[in-house]
Amino acid sequence: MTTGVYDKLITNKKKGLKQVAVLVDPDKLNDVGFEEIASNIHDAGVDFVFIGGSLLSTDNLANCIKIIKEVTDVPTIIFPGSPLQIDGSADAILFLSLISGRNPELLIGSHVIAAPYLKKTNLEILPTGYMLIDSGKPTTASYMSNSLPIPHNKSDIAVCTAMAGEMLGMKIIYMDGGSGASNVISEKMITAVKSNIDLPLIVGGGINTVEKAISCTEAGADLIVVGNATEKNPYFINEVTASIKAKSSSEVSSNIES
Ligand code: 1GP
């Protein structure tokens, strides 16, 4: 079933409107925290809520989705660290294939396990070529995935990997430095990947200032993902969303006028 998440992503991409997703880790907040962040996400005009984590050690996922959906109609997308993170009450799920790695479980094994459960839900399935990029220090994502991230200065490897993902039929490419990354992915690498694929490009990991967010979108990200920074400053969501939207709307307007 299609709930329109991909349509929204594609429509905004075609218009040149940059988009923002907030990543909520169900382990890191309680019910009051879920309500607060959902309200903030709603007020800020965020485009999507990603929910999940590389490693979850609570059973908060279903409750987290429930509370967020009670507060806002911003689409909820599961960003799963494992097949245990499937919940049919969200709107969509990133069906991640870790194409930067060579771990067969994360290229096909987990998908086989998840497929019959997903088939019974109404989740919109978003086949996503997921690329971990080295960000200066090991992250939970790189450790838990038992895979080597692409070196941060090897744009050619990133480009070829993204192109292969597109040729394999993925519908999205997600370049991730990992949650809490020390360094954001370089503009050079983002631009190189962007100019070699037609798919929507998601970029995340270590985006903790408005300047970093803008540099990622200017380099070619269609959607940026912000996680950790919102935990330290809840109003970062408002600042970053307002800046990204103002900048990309004014660029779209000036393109129409010229
Ligand atoms: C990680 O891209 C996300 O998968 C978000 O990263 O928590 O560093 O913002 P941060």
Q: How does the SSE layout of this entry go?
A:
Elements: H1 5-15, E1 19-24, H2 31-44, E2 48-51, H3 61-71, E3 76-78, E4 92-98, H4 104-119, E5 124-132, H5 140-144, H6 155-167, E6 172-176, H7 187-194, E7 201-204, H8 210-219, E8 223-226, H9 228-232, H10 236-257
Parallel strand pairs: 1-2, 1-8, 2-3, 3-4, 4-5, 5-6, 6-7, 7-8
The protein binds SN-glycerol-1-phosphate (1GP).
SN-glycerol-1-phosphate is lined by residues 23, 176, 178-181, 204-207, 225-229.
Q: Strand sequence of the main sheet, in spatial order?
A: 1-2-3-4-5-6-7-8
Derived from helix and strand composition plus strand pairing, the structural class reads alpha/beta
CATH superfamily: FMN-linked oxidoreductases
CATH topology: the name is: TIM Barrel
How is the biggest beta sheet arranged?
8 strands, parallel, barrel
CATH class division: Alpha Beta
Summarize the structure.
The protein has 258 residues and is α/β, with parallel strands linked by helices.
Would you write up a description of this structure?
The protein is α/β, with parallel strands linked by helices and 258 residues long. It has a single domain (5-257), classed as FMN-linked oxidoreductases (TIM Barrel, Alpha-Beta Barrel). It has 10 helices and 8 strands. An 8-stranded parallel barrel has the order 1-2-3-4-5-6-7-8, surrounded by 7 helices. Helix 6 runs parallel beside helix 7 and helix 7 runs parallel beside helix 8. The chain is globular. SN-glycerol-1-phosphate binds at residues 23, 176, 178-181, 204-207, 225-229.
